[in-house]
Design a protein that fits this description.
Blueprint: H1 2-13, H2 26-40, H3 42-45, H4 62-83, H5 86-91, H6 93-120, H7 126-151, H8 155-186, H9 198-226, H10 238-256
């Protein structure tokens, strides 16, 4: 009876794993990340401040820190696409760990630290400055929390924190989409609403775009983590409930014996 119960509990708790082709979002995500980096990074490989897409705010260290932010942020974006791919994690766990170290130490940490400084000195106005600094700080904190959880072998917490970190990493792409949409909507109002002030128009678009980019990404990530699983179980409570059912079943078997 004991052997039968143990077998039943292990089979109950085994995850229903999907093949890579059953997750159609992985391919487009990888393509988007590579395309975004291929578009974003070339001007900064020349180390020529004149080719920067961000205006000079008059702060001497701004451009060198911007280059660090862009290059290391590109490492984070490219590695992020592989880290969120479930099939890749299961098929190549060793590579997953190495790419994860690159994501943290060659990507998020240097890019986030540089982001705090360039965010605080952004030429796009005070609203964008506050948003950029908050994004950089949260990016660093969620990543460090995920790293600490992995080193403590708390892999459930590690997964949750890193999903939040990945959402903040990829929020830059949503930021650009929102910025483009806002430009289309607001630019015809340049002479009326903005009284012909192009700088005010740019700061308005940047302020709204930066806030919506990372807050929406983080909210979507949290919804994903808290969504009900198959059978009505929540992703956080599923394993505990499986264990409770197994213990209850074992108690009934023992009582019957």
């Amino acid at each position: 009876m004991t052997v039968s119960t143990r077998h039943s509990s292990s089979s109950t708790s085994a995850p229903n794993r999907k093949s890579w082709w059953q997750r159609p979002w992985t391919g487009p995500l990888l393509v988007l990340t590579f395309a975004f980096v291929a578009f974003s990074i070339p001007p900064y490989l020349t180390l020529d401040p004149a080719k920067s897409r961000v205006p000079d705010p008059g702060f001497a260290p701004h451009y060198p820190l911007l280059v660090v932010h862009v290059l290391c942020g590109s490492v984070a974006i490219l590695s992020c696409g592989f880290q969120v791919w479930p099939w890749f994690r299961r098929a190549y766990p060793g590579v997953h760990r190495r790419v994860g170290r690159a994501y943290v130490f060659a990507g998020v940490l240097p890019a986030g630290l540089a982001g705090v400084v360039i965010g605080a000195t952004s030429p796009f106005g005070p609203v964008a400055r506050v948003s950029n600094v908050m994004l950089s700080v949260l990016w660093l904190l969620t990543t460090i929390a995920g790293l600490r959880a992995a080193r403590g072998r708390r892999f459930g917490d590690h997964r949750r924190w890193m999903i939040r970190s990945f959402a903040l990493t990829l929020s830059i792409m949503l930021n650009r989409v929102i910025g483009g949409v806002l430009y289309v909507i607001l630019s015809p109002r340049l002479d009326s609403t903005f009284h012909g002030d192009e700088n005010l128009l740019v700061q308005t678009i940047a302020g709204i775009g930066t806030w919506l980019g990372w807050t929406l990404s983080l909210l979507i990530a949290q919804w994903w983590l808290d969504r009900p699983q198959s059978g009505g179980r929540n992703s956080r409570s599923g394993p505990a409930r499986v264990g409770l059912r197994s213990e209850t079943g074992a108690s009934k078997v023992a009582a019957g014996a």
